[in-house]
Structure formats: C-alpha cells, structure tokens
C-alpha cells in the first residue's frame, strides 16, 4: 500500500460508514427515528448561523481542554512518582484500583452534591475520573526506563532538571503520547455526561434538551459536530505528536 492509499483509507472508511447510515435510514423509512445524513445539513447551517452551535461547541471544548490539562499534569506527576519509588507505588496502588473502578457517573454526581452545580465541580469530576488512567500508563513508562541511562546521568552528576529533560522525558514521551490520545477519547465523552446532568451550556446540555423534545435530528447535529472537532484534534495534533514521540523506534 502506497502513501496515497494509506492517506485515503480513512476517507473511504468514513464513506463506508455513511453508506451504512443511508441504508439504515432507508430501511427505517422514518425521519423521526433515523434521518438521512443530507437532511441534517440545513439544521447544521441554521444552528451555525444563529451562533448556538459555535457557542455550545466552544463551551464543551473549553471544559475538555481544562480537564485534559489537569488530568495529564496530575497523572504524569503521580505515575512518574509511583514508577520511580516502589514503596510509594505499594501505598497508592490500591487507590488507583479503587478510582479506576469507580463509575464516572457516581463521581460526577458526588462532585455536584459536594461542590455544587458549577464549572468547578464539572471539571473536577472529569479530571478525577481520568487521572488514574493517565497515572497507570505513565507508571509503566517509568518502570521501563533504561537503568544504563540512569547510571550515566548519575556518573555525570546531572542536575535534576537536566536529567528530567534529557534522560527521563524522552523515554517517557511515547507513554505520554499514548495517555494523551486515550485521555482525549475518554474525557470528551465524560464532559458530555457532566453537561447532560448539570450544566446550562455545552453539547451535552443541548443533547439533553433535544432528547427531552425527542428530536433525533438535532441530537445528531450536535453529537456529530463535536465528533468532527475531536477527529480533527486526533488527526492534526495527537497522531502527529505520537509519531514524533515514537520516531526514535524507527531510527
């Protein structure tokens, strides 16, 4: 398969999915149950022109950015510490197991009950749900550090910052990239649940609104709009970053 074929494969894959949608809508023959893809275009244009769609997309994207940044930062620190210090890992591993198995819905409800129906509770709930996943991936990366490179850093008496920048982080980069990709995929879904349950803006809020009105078309307009945004983030930012982080494997 040539480079051009590889680039076109995702396009043909999405066209295949759209074809299945068209066939399913044709067989259903009920626009209130499953509308045809082209019937969503006028609705999308109307929401875009009114400013509703950009406003709610922006609100959701901002929450995703905040939760992603906090989860990656805290998960990186926690995972690195647990991977480097065995005693700390033994103490905190049960905590990780508990939070990994705590349903996101429970955490969201508790944060809303304890903190209130506000932005802080929404972002804290999403962050706490994702930190354990990031920490587990980063911990495995820290455990995989090359001991010879550690020994070299000690022999040359590298300062902590220099060791972190030139020895530890380059080895950790592929794990950070993997945690970031999986993190975005999970975080934006949880953000929609947070908005569905307790916010007055965002894609999740709009989906809740049109769910109450039994408007399948508008639910699809908002859901697909944000899916498109996240696909662009995946293709334009996360995948290139992961390839950059793993470039040394093919060197």
Keywords:
single chain; MetI-like fold; mainly alpha; 251 residues; globular
Task: Explain what the structure shows.
This protein is mostly helical. It has a single domain, classed as MetI-like (MetI-like fold, Orthogonal Bundle). Helices cover 84% and strands 0% of the residues. It is globular, with a radius of gyration of 22 Å.
Short description:
It contains 10 helices and no strands. It is mostly helical. The relative contact order is 0.12.
**C-alpha Rg (nearest Å):** 22 Å
Helix content: over 70%
Task: Please provide the count of β strands.
Answer: 0
Q: Low-confidence stretches at least 5 residues in length (pLDDT < 50)?
A: none
Query: In percent terms, what proportion of residues is strand?
Result: under 5%
CATH fold-level topology: MetI-like fold
Number of helices: 10
Order of helices and strands: HHHHHHHHHH
| Morphology | globular
Mean pLDDT: 85
Q: Major beta sheet, specifics? A: none
First-last Cα distance? 22 Å
Topology summary:
Layout: H1 3-28, H2 41-50, H3 52-84, H4 86-101, H5 104-115, H6 119-143, H7 147-155, H8 160-198, H9 203-212, H10 216-245
Helix pairs in contact: 3-4, 3-6, 3-8, 3-9, 4-6, 5-6, 5-8, 6-8, 8-9, 8-10, 9-10
């Amino acid at each position: 398969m040539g480079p051009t074929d590889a680039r076109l494969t995702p396009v043909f894959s999405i066209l295949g999915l759209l074809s299945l949608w068209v066939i399913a809508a044709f067989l259903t023959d009920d626009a209130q149950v499953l509308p045809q893809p082209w019937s969503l275009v006028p609705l999308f244009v109307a929401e875009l022109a009114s400013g509703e769609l950009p406003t709610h997309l922006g609100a959701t994207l901002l929450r995703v950015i905040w939760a992603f940044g906090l989860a990656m930062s805290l998960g990186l620190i926690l995972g690195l510490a647990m991977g480097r210090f065995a005693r700390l890992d033994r103490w905190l591993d049960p905590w990780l197991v508990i939070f990994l198995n705590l349903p996101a819905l429970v955490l969201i409800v508790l944060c809303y009950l304890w903190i209130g129906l506000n932005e802080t509770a929404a972002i804290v709930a999403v962050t706490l749900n994702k930190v354990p996943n990031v920490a587990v991936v980063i911990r495995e990366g820290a455990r995989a550090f090359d001991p010879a490179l550690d020994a070299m850093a000690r022999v040359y008496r590298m300062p902590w910052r220099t060791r972190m920048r030139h020895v530890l982080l380059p080895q950790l980069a592929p794990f950070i990239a993997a945690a970031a990709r999986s993190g975005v995929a999970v975080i934006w879904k949880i953000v929609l649940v947070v908005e569905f349950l307790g916010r007055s803006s965002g894609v999740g809020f709009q989906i809740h609104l049109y769910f109450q009105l039994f408007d399948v078309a508008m639910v699809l307009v908002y859901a697909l709009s944000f899916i498109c945004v996240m696909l662009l983030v995946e293709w334009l930012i996360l995948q290139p970053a992961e390839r950059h982080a793993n470039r040394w494997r093919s060197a």
